[in-house]
């Protein structure tokens, strides 16, 4: 069985994302210089053969830090999105399938939460509980949960009285099995398509928190941190310190957007040929 | 002494009301009684809005009835919990109208057919696979079809998969909800023959829901005609078709299209269209449409009256 | 004997898939629709009957590519007309009734307004005159209380009533020479279906219309149609008068289709 050829936008998205994954994996075993140690070169050296992306104020190698940062930015985005997808869809499926008081309880909680601006919420929580990779992941996934829950609820609700849901009950499935084994897989298209938008959003917020100094330890080579460290240089001509991490964020966000429907396609046998 | 046939499915006073705002109620089903005997085919005939599909779903508690009881193989299903219902569906199964909508698009035929074997009969994989191949052959498909997705099958093949799924659990009652309504006529005949053959081989009782009188005549031992949530006439198929009593049955039969040249029939016309099922008055449901209407028809709803030989009709006027 | 109102000659074509592959769907389709008759095009799923009908109006799906053939309407080849010339014919000289009437009506306007708008578009005149004609048309298709019904929205119409309104629009408001009916009674209850078919027969006879009925149901054909075109898998299998098709079918496919439609019923069973 072969799949229909993917659109060019999706191929480009997949290639860029693949490059980031490769970069993250390589950085686990090798970087040109130690990304954490300052003074591997003079401060504010422009891009050269020795330091391809230059050095920052503390004389750290920007390329090494950028590579190591991929672990954080990509890792946080992926884990936060998967967590939000799993928890949000589960809540949505339960609300959509069982309806009644369960639905009202879940839907109202979700709506109340959505009335908060997500980024502001993330800043407040991180400020309160302190920085750290785990905290950031939890907060960012929490922001995504309502969207997944609402999407999953709408999808499941529109399908719960379909004949194949009735048929699933008739062949001996319990109601939770009908909801999660039959209805949820058929609702995955829009959910997976949304993960790309959500992942792009999460990457941006991760970097924003880092830039505002609310994210990880300032010495961590997270891209937002790196931009913050280089922001003085933008005015005085040392553009490379902030520019390359910025470009990395742009590339990753863009790649997630480009992926879009490709993810939904992967889950649907009808789109295979 | 003649032994009474064993009744496998009996409903008494099955009623379904839907609240529609305020104290108003939509009467989808009002006090329907039927008996389905072992190995027979009982057809429920009616047009849209007659309640025949609601009846099937209430009889299986896919939709909760508002009142009345259902006995399946002698056991009341009224108070069954979730586990009991799951068990019940091993005894009574359903073939759905639109095989396209009733097959999960993400499941292969193998997964579809294995599911009831796994859940109802708790068979291990190897036994399931063997049985699945038998089922495929039983419904006129091949083992190669097990690897297909529903969208890779024709409408007729999909309906065969639907039948295989229903039979996998080894029920003795099968509810057929318009099983040929979405099929081409050339496929329809094959499907009906398949259903007849399976009934004879497996001693199945069929509750056959249809709007197609031709198909009903071809399939059913007995017929119950439904109109606006209630049965207006019932009896043996040949009696009802040869000697329809209720004005609605007559109108229905005389309106059925016939694929034959030169058939000129006396058409009995009903005035207007089916009235609203919301808060209907206690009167014959055909009031206002019926050419034989009497003043007494508007004062109460006539019950089914025996017209002899198991033929019953809810119209005192035609019997007078 | 005048020439037929519509003649389709050698119409062939294919569907083009996104990757450019061509799937032939119509093969040398030829038939004629004589003036003043009801001609049925009968076929099962995939027979090409609807595609042929839509091609007459030039509203076939964009993925359909014609490779050969002519569609002669009153002696002119419709396929050679410019889009603006085609617009002058579509809805004025040829109109169509679709299967799902309620989907064909715009849900945000009253039924009367939609019919009156079409009337003014085709015949001009004042709004009140158009509405008056609309109400007459609704009355002519036996819609009870046409004044009140004209003020209602499509969702307030039952399927049967909506189909009557569509027939009023296509046959009476547009006043076409050729009326195409694409499965007009599919999905309707048999009692409603019988009444709609009677209405169509009456309109054609009283107003001298020519009609082309697309259907999968031979039962509908027997009582209403004068001529039958049997199609299968994109080809015309057989054409003839209704009597000839039903009583002396020449082709094996027609015979099988008839047998399947009759489901083993004997004439005595039907007369009873």
TrEMBL record, chain A:
Q: Membrane topology for this entry?
A: Multi-pass membrane protein
The transmembrane residues are 12-33, 74-98, 191-216, 239-264
Q: Would you say which domain of life the source belongs to?
A: Bacteria
Q: Does the keyword Protein transport apply?
A: yes
Pfam families given in the database record:
BPD_transp_1
Q: Where is the ABC transmembrane type-1 domain?
A: 70-260
- The coiled-coil regions, if any, are none
Does Oxidoreductase count among this protein's keywords? no
Give the UniProt keywords, A-Z.
Cell membrane, Membrane, Peptide transport, Protein transport, Transmembrane, Transmembrane helix, Transport
Q: Which InterPro entries match?
A: BP-dependent_transpt_permease, MetI-like, MetI-like_sf
Broad class of where this protein is predominantly found:
membrane
Family affiliation:
Belongs to the binding-protein-dependent transport system permease family.
Protein name stated in the entry: ABC transporter permease
From which source organism is this entry?
A: Neoroseomonas terrae
Automatic annotation (TrEMBL), chain B:
Report whether Nucleotide-binding shows up as a keyword of the record: yes
Note whether Nucleotide-binding occurs among the keywords: yes
User: From which lineage does this chain's organism come?
Assistant: Bacteria, Pseudomonadati, Pseudomonadota, Alphaproteobacteria, Acetobacterales
Q: What membrane topology does the annotation report for this chain?
A: Peripheral membrane protein
What is an example of a GO molecular function annotated in this UniProt entry? Answer: ATP binding
Intracellular or extracellular location(s):
Cell inner membrane
For this entry, the protein name equals: ATP-binding cassette domain-containing protein
Q: Which SUPFAM superfamilies match?
A: P-loop containing nucleoside triphosphate hydrolases
The residue ranges of the ABC transporter domain are: 9-253
Keywords annotated in UniProt: ATP-binding, Nucleotide-binding, Transport
Which Pfam families would you find in this protein's record? ABC_tran, oligo_HPY
* Tree of life domain: Bacteria
Instruction: Spell out the InterPro entries in the cross-references.
Output: AAA+_ATPase, ABC_transp_ATP-bind, ABC_transporter-like_ATP-bd, ABC_transporter-like_CS, Oligopep_ABC_C, P-loop_NTPase
NCBIfam families for the chain: oligo_HPY
Question: What does the similarity note say?
Answer: Belongs to the ABC transporter superfamily.
Automatic annotation (TrEMBL), chain C:
Keyword field contains Repeat: no
Q: Which residues form the ABC transporter domain?
A: 6-258
Major location category of this protein: membrane
Question: Which Pfam families does this UniProt record tie to the protein?
Answer: ABC_tran
Q: Which InterPro entries match?
A: AAA+_ATPase, ABC_Ni/Peptide_Import, ABC_transporter-like_ATP-bd, ABC_transporter-like_CS, P-loop_NTPase
Give the Gene3D superfamilies listed for this entry: P-loop containing nucleotide triphosphate hydrolases
Which keywords accompany this UniProt record? Answer: ATP-binding, Cell membrane, Membrane, Nucleotide-binding, Transport
Subcellular location(s) per record:
Cell inner membrane
Q: Determine if Transport is one of this entry's keywords.
A: yes
Membrane topology of this protein:
Peripheral membrane protein
Q: Which GO terms describe its molecular function?
A: ATP binding
Family of this protein: Belongs to the ABC transporter superfamily.
Q: What is this protein called?
A: ABC transporter ATP-binding protein
């Amino acid at each position: 069985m072969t799949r229909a050829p993917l659109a060019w936008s999706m191929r480009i998205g997949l290639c860029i994302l693949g490059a980031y994954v490769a970069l993250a994996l390589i950085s686990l075993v090798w970087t040109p210089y130690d990304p954490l140690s300052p003074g591997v070169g003079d401060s504010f050296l422009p891009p050269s053969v020795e330091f391809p992306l230059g050095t920052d104020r503390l004389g750290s190698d920007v390329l090494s830090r950028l590579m190591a940062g991929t672990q954080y930015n990509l890792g946080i985005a992926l884990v936060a999105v998967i967590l939000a997808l799993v928890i949000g869809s589960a809540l949505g499926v339960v609300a959509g399938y069982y309806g009644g008081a369960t639905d009202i309880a879940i839907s109202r909680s979700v709506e109340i939460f959505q009335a908060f601006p997500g980024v502001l919420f993330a800043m407040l929580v991180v400020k309160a509980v302190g920085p750290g990779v785990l905290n950031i992941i939890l907060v960012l996934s929490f922001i995504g949960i309502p969207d997944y829950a609402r999407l999953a609820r709408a999808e499941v609700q529109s399908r719960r009285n379909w004949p194949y849901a009735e048929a699933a009950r008739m062949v001996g499935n319990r109601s939770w099995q009908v909801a999660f084994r039959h209805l949820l897989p058929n609702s995955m298209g829009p959910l997976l398509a949304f993960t790309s938008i959500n992942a792009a959003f999460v990457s941006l917020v991760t970097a924003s928190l880092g830039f505002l100094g609310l994210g990880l330890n300032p010495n961590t080579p997270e891209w937002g941190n790196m931009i913050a460290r280089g922001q003085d240089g933008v005015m005085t001509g040392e553009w490379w310190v902030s520019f390359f991490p910025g470009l990395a964020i742009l590339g990753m966000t863009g790649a997630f957007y480009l992926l879009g429907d490709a993810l939904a396609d992967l889950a649907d046998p009808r789109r295979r040929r | 002494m003649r032994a009474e046939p064993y009744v496998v499915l009996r409903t008494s006073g099955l009623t379904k009301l839907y609240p529609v705002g305020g104290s108003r109620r939509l009467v989808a089903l009002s006090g329907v009684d039927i008996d389905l005997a072992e190995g027979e085919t009982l057809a429920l005939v009616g047009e849209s809005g007659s309640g025949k599909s609601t009846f099937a779903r209430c009889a299986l508690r896919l939709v909760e009835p508002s009142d009345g009881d259902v006995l399946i193989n002698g056991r009341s299903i009224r108070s069954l919990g979730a586990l009991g219902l799951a068990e019940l569906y091993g005894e009574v199964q359903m073939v759905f109208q639109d095989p396209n909508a009733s097959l999960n698009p993400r499941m292969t035929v193998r997964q579809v057919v294995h599911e009831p074997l796994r859940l109802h009969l708790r068979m291990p994989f190897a036994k399931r696979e063997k049985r699945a191949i038998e089922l495929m052959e039983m419904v006129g498909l091949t083992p190669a079809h097990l690897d297909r997705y529903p969208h890779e099958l024709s409408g007729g093949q999909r309906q065969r998969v639907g039948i295989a799924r229903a039979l996998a659990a080894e029920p003795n009652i099968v509810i057929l909800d318009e099983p040929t309504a979405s099929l081409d006529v050339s496929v329809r005949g094959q499907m009906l023959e398949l259903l007849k053959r399976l009934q004879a081989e497996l001693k199945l009782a069929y509750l056959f829901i249809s709007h197609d009188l031709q198909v009903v005549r071809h399939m059913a031992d007995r017929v119950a005609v439904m109109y606006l949530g209630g049965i207006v006439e019932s009896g043996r198929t040949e009696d009802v078709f040869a000697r329809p009593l209720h004005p609605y049955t007559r109108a229905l039969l005389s309106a059925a299209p016939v694929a034959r040249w030169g058939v000129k029939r006396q058409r009995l016309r009903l005035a207007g269209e089916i009235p609203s099922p919301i808060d209907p008055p206690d009167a014959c449901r055909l009031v206002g449409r019926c050419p034989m209407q009497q003043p007494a028809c508007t004062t109460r709803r006539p019950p089914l009256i025996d017209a002899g030989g198991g033929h019953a009709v809810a119209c005192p006027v035609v019997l007078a | 004997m005048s020439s037929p109102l519509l003649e389709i000659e050698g119409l062939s074509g294919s569907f083009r898939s996104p990757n450019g592959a061509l799937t032939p769907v119509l093969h040398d389709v030829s038939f004629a629709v004589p003036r003043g008759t009801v001609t049925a095009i009968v076929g099962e799923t995939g027979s090409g009957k609807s595609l042929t009908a839509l091609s007459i109006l030039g509203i076939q799906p964009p993925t359909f590519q014609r490779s050969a053939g002519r569609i002669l309407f009153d002696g002119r080849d419709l396929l050679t007309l410019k889009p603006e010339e085609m617009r002058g014919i579509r809805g004025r000289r040829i109109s169509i009734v679709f299967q799902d009437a309620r989907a064909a009506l715009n849900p945000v306007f009253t039924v009367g307004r939609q019919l009156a708008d079409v009337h003014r578009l085709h015949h001009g005149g004042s709004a009140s005159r158009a509405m008056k004609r609309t109400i007459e048309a609704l009355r002519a298709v036996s819609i009870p209380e046409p004044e009140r019904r004209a003020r209602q929205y499509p969702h307030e119409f039952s399927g049967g009533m909506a189909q009557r309104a569509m027939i009023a629009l296509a046959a009476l408001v547009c006043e076409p020479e050729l009326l195409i009916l694409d499965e007009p009674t599919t999905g309707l209850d048999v009692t409603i279906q019988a009444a709609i078919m009677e209405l169509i027969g009456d309109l054609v006879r009283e107003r001298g219309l020519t009609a082309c009925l697309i259907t999968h149901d031979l039962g509908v054909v027997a009582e209403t149609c004068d001529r039958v075109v049997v199609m299968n898998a994109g080809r015309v299998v057989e054409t003839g008068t209704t009597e000839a098709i039903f009583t002396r079918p020449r082709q094996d496919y027609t015979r099988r289709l008839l047998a399947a439609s009759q489901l083993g019923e004997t004439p005595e069973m039907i007369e009873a």
